[in-house]
Each structure stands twice: as structure tokens, then as C-alpha cells.
Amino acid sequence: MAGFKLLVGLGNPGSEYENTRHNAGAQWIEALARQSQCSLRTEKKFFGQFGKVSIAGEECYLLIPTTYMNLSGKAVQAVCQFYKIPPENILVIHDELDIAPGTAKLKKGGGHGGHNGLKDIIAKLANNREFGRLRIGIGHPGHASQVANYVLKKAAPDDYAKIEQAIDESLRYVEDIVHGNLNTVMNQLHSFKA
């Protein structure tokens, strides 16, 4: 299976959103950048923070859109057009309400599940849904009407610690992820629970 060239971590820009549940994807990219000693810089033409990194001999691009979440596709589209990256070579890392904090799941393709960042990326990729997703569990507040508020708040300390552990755990598989060995990763990562 083709690997991933562009790794995109979703979040909202600005210090008031830092470490909120909705920014789990951005946190993942920040952690990977630190681990790879890659400095992300603000790149106006890509509407985000951008960096290049070599992972297991593959050159990859890291992106954290600095548009708001519901405009994430603008940044993804800009990078893809510039570097000619097809949707199936993109991995989007995002927060996921439907799985518990302390877990992370990898999948290829699928819908947006109501996630505004994914919704916009799908729209800007001309409705192509074939990109990969690494879903970082943040848990669900219990009722749909509470979701908007919930995702924009910081998780409780023990949940936050679990989210960080799931991020660390999934980063252990980054070489396999980049090379497209998704089944290998799924077999191990999906049984992890912080």
C-alpha cells in the first residue's frame, strides 16, 4: 500500500485553543516535529505551520493548518497542489469523539463523522475520501448538544494524560505508518489503552 507523504494535524490556532481536545491532531504533529528535530514554521502560502522531515528514509511534509478547524481543507489543498500529492498519500490526525481517551485508531478512507475539519478537507479534495486518518480518542460528553463546547475545552488532567499517552504510543509506529504498513500498526495500536 502506498505510504503517506503529507501528515496533517488538525486544531484551532491561537493560545486559547492550545491543548484543547479539538487540538489533539495538532499536538501529535508537534510531538513528531520535536521527536524528529524538525522546526515547523509559519508558511503563508500553505495557511499553516509547515515542515519537512525524513522518516525511515522517506521525505514527508508536516502541516498544522492555522486556519480555523472548519477551514482546514484550504491548507491541505494548498500543500497538495504545490507538491502534487494525491489524497491517498495524506494522513490526517484528528480528535475523535467516538473513541475513549487513551486510545488511537488508524483507518483509510471513510466519511467525516460530523468532524468539521474532515468535512472541509473532503470538500477541498473534490470529495475524495481516500486519505488516511489517525483518530485520537477524546471521548464523548454524552449528548450531541454538548459537543461544540466539549471539544473546545481542555480535557480533565487524567483524560489529558491519557490523550498524551495515546499520542506517544501512536508515534512509536510512525515509520510503519509512513511506509503504509497500516495492518501491522492496526494490529498493535488498536489493542493499546492508556
Automatic annotation (TrEMBL):
<feature type="binding site">
    <location>
        <position position="116"/>
    </location>
    <ligand>
        <name>tRNA</name>
    </ligand>
</feature>
<dbReference type="GO" id="GO:0006515">
    <property type="term" value="P:protein quality control for misfolded or incompletely synthesized proteins"/>
</dbReference>
<dbReference type="GO" id="GO:0072344">
    <property type="term" value="P:rescue of stalled ribosome"/>
</dbReference>
<dbReference type="GO" id="GO:0005737">
    <property type="term" value="C:cytoplasm"/>
</dbReference>
<feature type="binding site">
    <location>
        <position position="70"/>
    </location>
    <ligand>
        <name>tRNA</name>
    </ligand>
</feature>
<comment type="function">
    <text>Hydrolyzes ribosome-free peptidyl-tRNAs (with 1 or more amino acids incorporated), which drop off the ribosome during protein synthesis, or as a result of ribosome stalling.</text>
</comment>
<protein>
    <recommendedName>
        <fullName>Peptidyl-tRNA hydrolase</fullName>
        <ecNumber>3.1.1.29</ecNumber>
    </recommendedName>
</protein>
<feature type="site" description="Stabilizes the basic form of H active site to accept a proton">
    <location>
        <position position="95"/>
    </location>
</feature>
<dbReference type="GO" id="GO:0000049">
    <property type="term" value="F:tRNA binding"/>
</dbReference>
<comment type="subunit">
    <text>Monomer.</text>
</comment>
<dbReference type="InterPro" id="IPR036416">
    <property type="entry name" value="Pept_tRNA_hydro_sf"/>
</dbReference>
<feature type="binding site">
    <location>
        <position position="17"/>
    </location>
    <ligand>
        <name>tRNA</name>
    </ligand>
</feature>
<comment type="function">
    <text>Catalyzes the release of premature peptidyl moieties from peptidyl-tRNA molecules trapped in stalled 50S ribosomal subunits, and thus maintains levels of free tRNAs and 50S ribosomes.</text>
</comment>
<keyword id="KW-0694">RNA-binding</keyword>
<keyword id="KW-0820">tRNA-binding</keyword>
<keyword id="KW-0963">Cytoplasm</keyword>
<dbReference type="InterPro" id="IPR001328">
    <property type="entry name" value="Pept_tRNA_hydro"/>
</dbReference>
<dbReference type="GO" id="GO:0004045">
    <property type="term" value="F:peptidyl-tRNA hydrolase activity"/>
</dbReference>
<comment type="similarity">
    <text>Belongs to the PTH family.</text>
</comment>
<keyword id="KW-0378">Hydrolase</keyword>
<feature type="active site" description="Proton acceptor">
    <location>
        <position position="22"/>
    </location>
</feature>
<feature type="binding site">
    <location>
        <position position="68"/>
    </location>
    <ligand>
        <name>tRNA</name>
    </ligand>
</feature>
<feature type="site" description="Discriminates between blocked and unblocked aminoacyl-tRNA">
    <location>
        <position position="12"/>
    </location>
</feature>
<dbReference type="Pfam" id="PF01195">
    <property type="entry name" value="Pept_tRNA_hydro"/>
</dbReference>
<dbReference type="InterPro" id="IPR018171">
    <property type="entry name" value="Pept_tRNA_hydro_CS"/>
</dbReference>
